[in-house]
Design brief:
33% strand; alpha+beta; 10 strands
């Protein structure tokens, strides 16, 4: 009986330590990625743009491909290897080639419904300042945080967007174990960017055993 009490006490202590120290609760088993900083210019006067960056682990093996594509529909259809939606869409593909799905999506939604999709309205005014849906967006997954930030914005006298710089950076964080991007903790602003709404949208998934119908994700 005494041994049972000691065992239960030890389990309780370890559980408390895990809760107070997340790094003990779950260490990432994903590849250790090489950190980086990069950027590209998006100019609305140009017909289109394509930015592709292989992401390597610390041993030099390509583990992911980060890519952004944008511009006119004609340019995207002709030059992009994947299905992008204008004016600018960014995605993260597993492996050394682009694919049409994106790890930046927080569920089974298409990449153009993820926070990797940009419209010009989301970069200006109150919408540009909206947390995780404006000029600054963080994507936490697989042992790292990928940050996209828009700077050096140039507009016309009528506040029409002319150009901007997209900054891309990666920082390792072994405590992040999510297979896809974690939810950011803020609801989509939709048509009201002045009111900041905290929370998470329902995650929707498709499963083979239900005929791939939309339902709330099971995990």
């Amino acid at each position: 009986m005494r041994h049972d009490l000691i065992y239960k006490l030890l389990v309780s202590i370890l559980f408390a330590l895990a809760l107070s120290c997340p790094s003990l609760a779950a260490e990432s088993t994903w590849p250790k990625m090489k950190e980086f900083d990069d950027s590209f210019i998006f100019d609305t006067k140009e017909e289109g743009i394509e930015f592709i960056k292989p992401l390597c682990d610390v041993d030099g093996t390509v583990r992911y491909v980060f890519s952004c594509g944008g511009g006119t529909d004609e340019y995207i259809d002709k030059h992009s290897n994947s299905t992008f939606i204008g004016p600018l869409g960014c995605r993260l593909s597993e492996g050394d080639k682009e694919v049409e799905t994106s790890l930046l999506s927080e569920d089974d939604s298409a990449p153009w419904h993820s926070r990797g999709q940009y419209n010009f309205r989301s970069l200006l005014g109150d919408c540009g300042k909206y947390p995780e849906d404006g000029r600054l967006r963080h994507f936490r997954l697989r042992g790292f945080e990928l940050t996209l930030s828009v700077t050096d914005i140039i507009t016309t006298d009528r506040d029409q967007l002319v150009s901007f710089r997209m900054n891309v950076s990666l920082r390792r964080d072994d405590r992040i174990t999510s297979k896809q991007a974690e939810q950011p903790g803020y609801l989509s602003p939709r048509n009201d960017c002045k009111t900041i709404k905290k929370g998470n949208e329902p995650r929707m998934c498709r499963y083979p055993d239900t005929g791939y119908i939309w339902e709330k994700c099971r995990d």
